[in-house]
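Justification of computing resources. Each target in the renewal requires a structure prediction run like the one illustrated here; the chain below, 117 residues long, is used simply to show the kind of job we budget for.
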Amino acid sequence: MPRARLIDAYTNADVLFLHLNDYDAFKKVLPSKIFEYAALGKPIWAGVAGYAAEFINTEIDNAAVFPPCDVGQALRTFEKLELRDTPRPSFVAKYARERIMAEMAAEIVTLAHGTAD
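Resulting structure tokens:
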């Protein structure tokens, strides 16, 4: 799906859903989709575990996390979502690619100057 149509689909959605299967490998990943969803301000309903669950729970307002493949818990957590847009300007600012790249570049320059002396 072209990116423009994807953004339209996200914008028209009431809730953005993400589900990763219950595999150990998925407990160590942080899908980029989480950042896209959070930036849009829509409620997020996520079946994730491990690092992704921790990240969503601590960093994203109006998101409900349930253990992957647990339908009962999924339904219970869905009821906790507020079905309204939740702007997340502090999240967007904190994880903006430009800010992260600038910090990384500054760190590289600092390291380069420290080793050149």
